[in-house]
Amino acid sequence: MRSRNPAWICATGLGVALLAGCGSSSPAAQPAALDIAAPSASPASLPQLRNIVLRAEDLPLGWAGEPYKADPNASAISASMVKCVGSRNTDSGKVSEAHSATFTLNNARISSSAASYRSQKDPDADVAMLHSPKVSSCFQRQLTKQIATALPAGATIESASMHIALGSAGSPSNVVAVGTGTVTVAANGQRTALHVSTAFITGPLIEAEVDSFNVGKPVPASVVKSLVAFVATRASAG
Questions:
Q1: Which of 193, 228, 173 is closest to 58 using CA atoms?
Q2: Distance between CA atoms of residues 220 and 59, nearest Å
Q3: Stated pTM of the model
Q4: In this structure, what DSSP letter does residue 186 have?
Q5: Domain range for residue 87?
Q6: Inter-axis angle of helices 74-85 and 135-150, to 10 degrees?
Q7: Which of 93, 116, 149, 175 is the most exposed, having the fewest neighbouring CB atoms within 10 Å of its CB?
Q8: Measuring CA to CA, which residue among 90, 219, 126, 231 is closest to residue 171?
Q9: Does residue 1 form part of some domain?
Q10: 101 occurs within a structural domain
């Protein structure tokens, strides 16, 4: 049924904090092919990262940008993912981080981020985490928790699903995984499906994400794929 856009909808989404700061607990499990940075590579600066994330001109007509607002729970979300998957925190190796505006169209929201690291071992560790058999269930648990804490009194979560698929799904090859999820919420006799997606992207000493959220149906795949390609292409150049 159609949502009436309650305020809690705009507070939910997947968010970059679900991956940022996480990594593999076993360095031996990191795929050697992910060592894409040359030995002499330097971490991307903040201006370079800002050039990677989404820009207004990347979006189709009708989307409006809102200033990025930091999530006060980002550290807790990251710690929760680390504990769930059994990973190590890679935040100490992070040099800089940039966020795009949050672009909105009705109930739909799209945002992106990019971070640089001193050593390729940290992005590699985070990518290795995505190979964990626990990762989909851990993302699902975190997504459910984020939405549940934002629900108004009387609203309940009826079902939730989240799946992390390895590979680029037709996007540039440095898109290492794509996550999609749906949470069904019941409130005031209505059932509303909340849809999220995240594309995990790498570059030389770089991690990036493109996140989407919508009510009732996913953000059109053609729109998401186009935006992921913009960010992935820029991230691959560093």
A1: 228
A2: 12
A3: 0.83
A4: E
A5: 7-33+41-237
A6: 150
A7: 149
A8: 231
A9: no
A10: yes
Taking Cα atoms as reference points, which of 120, 133, 104, 117 lies closest to residue 39? Answer: 120
pLDDT of residue 215: 94
Q: What is the C-alpha separation between 111 and 11, in angstroms, rounded? A: 13
Specify the DSSP class assigned to residue 238. -
Query: Residue 5: how many CB atoms within 10 A of its CB?
Result: 12
CA 233 centroid distance within chain: 17
On whether residue 105 sits in a domain, the answer given is: yes
Locus of tokens 């504990």: 83
| Structure tokens, 227 | 């935006």
Can you give the pLDDT at residue 86? 81
Residue 17 CA from chain centroid, whole number: 7
CA–CA gap between residue 18 and residue 23 (Å, rounded): 11
Total number of domains in the chain? 1
All residues at 6 or more sequence positions from 67 whose CB lies less than 8 Å from its CB, including other chains:
101, 102
Residue 68 lies in a domain: yes
Query: Over its length of 238 residues, how does the chain's per-residue pLDDT go in tens digits?
Result: 333 333 333 333 343 334 333 433 333 333 333 444 444 479 999 999 999 999 999 999 999 999 999 888 777 787 788 788 887 777 778 999 999 999 999 999 999 999 999 999 989 988 988 999 999 999 999 889 888 888 888 899 999 999 999 998 889 999 999 999 999 999 888 999 999 999 999 999 999 999 999 999 999 999 999 999 999 999 999 8
Check if the beta carbon of residue 197 is closer than 8 Å to that of residue 95. no
Strand partners, 161: 182
Three-class DSSP category at 206: strand
Q: Residue 60 in 3-state DSSP?
A: coil
What pLDDT score does 41 carry? 74
